[in-house]
Every structure is written in structure tokens, then in C-alpha cells.
């Protein structure tokens, strides 16, 4: 089942907020509905958001309220860009689709579907390339630690870092996976654990704060993460908690690998200092399941992402290359 697809003139997505209790599909017939789905994380993950952005422009271009006015289309598309500012794939997908506006709605949709198909191919390529690279890097069973969700739910199918895990498993090289719960919205506990169970891949769920300590005790011999934006120098924005794992892995000489498509590399952003970090407000950390868990009036800081500096990253794996930051390689222009 695809996380996101175009069916009979609308976008259909798996509602990730309903998991793991229920596998539910949502049909989105307007870009306003799509914006709401993105903001409440019914659809999330860098590759999936790239597809969503392009398909959102296709919805706008086909809407009779906008088709006669290119400026209205671009204005509506801008609201898509603002739905999640840290994830560069969203803006990348929107901008790719907007280039086709002068050629009509059919051209916009054709581009969106091409992006969907390319992301699926990219996931498969990252999985195979990553498995080969890691098996050369690590002798014996590969025990992976990961955070958030980087599987098919974050892409069209297969995913990024979890696609590598799947390939390692299929190759007989995987030992186990340790997935962090990923506070405050539990993407690791709700989504990654659900996907791993569907695939019969062995794993343990751990609390976020246990990750660095368990690395020090040898529970994992590699850390694999995805990315929401990669700056030109290699600094990487990903789910909050990634920086802590990278710091621990560097101290322990454990490889720390980023797996992401080339579309997540943002050469217009020089360093991680320039990446806008989304703060998702207080409700996510002052309550749980609609029950307040803190005193009233508590002030919060709730960054959804952090930035791992390139010097803590061993390598970046994309669909087309492996960049060894630990050996002085740089992103350059692919």
C-alpha cells in the first residue's frame, strides 16, 4: 500500500495519526485539506511531503477557481510552502510542479506523478546502495539504532533509512533494530514499530533518553537516520533527538549515517545555522491523549527538529551516491 497516491482526481493518503490502532485512508480533494493533513502530520516524511507538494499544486491547477489566473495558483501554492517550513522536499515538490503551470493542469499532474514514481525508485536505490555500503563497513550482524519514522510511511513505499534496514534484512545481514520512541508524538513507537512488525523485522523499542547509553553498552553498531533538509556543507536537520545520537556515536566511534534522496539536499542553504526550525507549540508536550500532564501555564520550547553538524556525520547515502564526510568528501553538485 502506498503512503500517498493520486486516485481519480484527488490525493489519497494513509492517515498516520490513526496508526497503530487503525489503518485508515484519507481522500483530499483540495489544497486546503492537504495543508491541514500536513500540519497535523496525517502525511509526513521528507519524500512523501515532496510528492504531496507537487500533487497539491495539481489540485490547485485543476480547480476552476484558479485555472484562469496563474497568479492565483501561485498564491495558493505559497500556502502549501508554509505548511511545514523545515522540510525542504515540500517546497521542492511545489516548485517543480509550479514550473509546469504555463503548460496547463495536465502537465502539472504529469510532473507530480513523475515525482511520485521517482521517489519510489529512489527508495529502492537507497536501500540497495545503503545495504552494500554498510556490509562493507561492518563485519558481522548489523545492529541498527534509528529515530522517528523513515520507512514507507515517510515516502511512497520502502522509505529512506528503513529501506536500508529492509535491504539488510533481505540480505541476511541484519541483527536487530533499536527504534527510539521519538517524543513528543511517538513516531518511532507508533509508526516505525508498526512497520517493522508488518515486515517481521526483529526490533526493540526504547525511550529516547536511553539511546546514547545503549550505544555505549554496544546495543547497536550503527545509527541510521533520515533527513528533512541537508545544507550545502552537509549539516543535517532531522527529528529532534538526532543530534544527541550523533554526539554519542561520535564519542564511541560508531558510524552515524544519513539516508535521504538528492531532493533533500538544499544547496541554497549554506549551513545548518540557516535552517528554520519549526516549533510546534506547547500542547504536544503539556498534554498526552487530551489529558494535561503539566501544571497550567507552563512555558515550553518544542522544536520539531535539530541540526547535526557535518563533522558528526560519517556519510550520506542517496539514490545515486555515498558521500563520505568522514573522509573529507563534500556534497558539491551531483
Kindly estimate the percentage of residues that lie in beta strands according to DSSP: 15-25%
**Poorly predicted tracts of residues:** none
Order of helices and strands: EEEHHHHHEHEHEHEEEHEEHEEEEE
Q: Specify the number of helices.
A: 10
Report the span from N to C terminus. Answer: 31 Å
Radius of gyration, in angstroms, nearest whole number: 19 Å
Shape: globular
CATH homologous superfamily classification of the largest domain: Translation initiation factor eif-2b, domain 2
Main sheet: strands, sense, barrel: 7 strands, mixed
By oligomeric state, this entry counts as: single chain
Q: Could you give the count of β-strands?
A: 16
Task: Domain count, please report it.
Answer: 2
- Residue-averaged pLDDT: 95
Strand order of the largest sheet: 6-5-4-7-10-15-16
CATH class of the largest domain: Alpha Beta
Features:
334 residues; alpha/beta; Four Helix Bundle (Hemerythrin (Met), subunit A); Rossmann fold; 2 domains; seven-stranded mixed beta sheet; 10 helices; 16 strands; globular
If you had to describe this structure to a student in words, what would you say it looks like?
The protein has helices at 31-39, 46-62, 70-81, 88-98, 105-137, 161-170, 187-199, 211-216, 242-251, 283-286, and strands at 4-7, 10-14, 25-28, 142-146, 174-180, 203-206, 222-225, 229-231, 236-239, 256-259, 265-266, 287-288, 291-292, 305-308, 315-317, 322-323. The protein is an alpha/beta fold and 334 residues long. It has 2 domains: 4-119, Four Helix Bundle (Hemerythrin (Met), subunit A) (Up-down Bundle); 129-327, Translation initiation factor eif-2b, domain 2 (Rossmann fold, 3-Layer(aba) Sandwich). Helix 2 (46-62) packs antiparallel against helix 3 (70-81).
Amino acid at each position: 500500500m502506498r503512503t500517498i497516491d493520486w486516485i481519480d482526481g484527488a490525493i489519497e493518503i494513509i492517515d498516520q495519526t490513526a496508526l497503530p490502532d487503525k489503518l485508515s485512508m484519507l481522500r483530499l480533494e483540495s489544497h486546503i485539506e492537504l495543508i491541514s493533513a500536513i500540519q497535523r502530520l496525517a502525511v509526513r516524511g521528507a519524500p512523501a511531503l515532496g510528492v504531496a507538494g507537487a500533487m497539491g499544486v495539481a489540485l490547485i491547477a485543476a480547480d476552476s477557481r484558479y485555472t484562469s489566473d496563474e497568479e492565483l495558483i501561485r498564491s495558493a501554492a505559497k500556502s502549501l510552502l508554509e505548511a511545514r517550513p523545515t522540510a525542504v522536499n515540500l517546497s521542492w515538490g511545489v516548485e517543480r510542479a509550479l514550473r509546469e503551470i504555463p503548460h496547463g493542469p495536465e502537465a502539472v499532474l504529469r510532473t507530480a506523478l513523475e515525482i511520485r514514481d521517482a521517489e519510489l525508485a529512489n527508495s529502492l536505490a537507497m536501500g540497495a546502495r545503503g545495504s552494500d555500503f554498510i556490509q562493507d563497513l561492518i563485519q558481522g550482524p548489523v545492529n541498527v539504532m534509528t529515530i522517528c519514522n523513515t520507512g514507507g510511511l515517510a515516502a511512497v513505499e520502502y522509505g529512506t533509512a528503513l529501506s536500508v534496514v529492509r535491504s539488510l534484512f533481505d540480505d541476511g545481514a541484519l541483527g536487530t533494530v533499536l527504534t527510539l520512541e521519538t517524543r513528543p508524538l511517538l513516531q518511532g513507537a507508533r509508526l516505525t514499530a508498526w512497520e517493522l512488525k508488518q515486515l517481521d523485522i526483529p526490533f526493540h523499542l526504547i525511550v529516547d533518553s536511553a539511546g546514547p547509553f545503549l550505544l555505549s553498552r554496544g546495543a547497536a553498531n550503527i545509527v541510521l537516520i533520515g533527513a528533512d533538509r541537508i545544507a550545502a556543507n552537509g549539516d543535517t536537520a532531522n527529528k529532534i533527538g538526532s543530534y544527541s545520537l550523533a554526539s554519542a556515536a561520535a564519542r564511541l566511534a560508531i558510524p552515524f549515517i544519513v539516508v535521504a534522496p538528492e531532493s533533500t539536499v538544499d544547496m541554497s542553504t549554506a549551513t545548518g545555522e540557516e535552517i528554520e526550525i519549526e516549533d510546534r507549540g506547547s500542547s504536544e508536550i503539556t498534554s498526552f491523549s487530551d489529558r494535561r500532564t503539566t501544571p497550567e501555564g507552563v512555558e515550553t520550547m518544542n522544536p520539531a527538529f535539530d541540526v547535526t553538524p557535518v563533522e558528526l556525520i560519517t556519510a550520506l547515502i542517496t539514490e545515486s551516491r555515498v558521500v563520505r564526510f568522514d573522509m573529507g568528501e563534500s556534497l558539491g553538485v551531483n
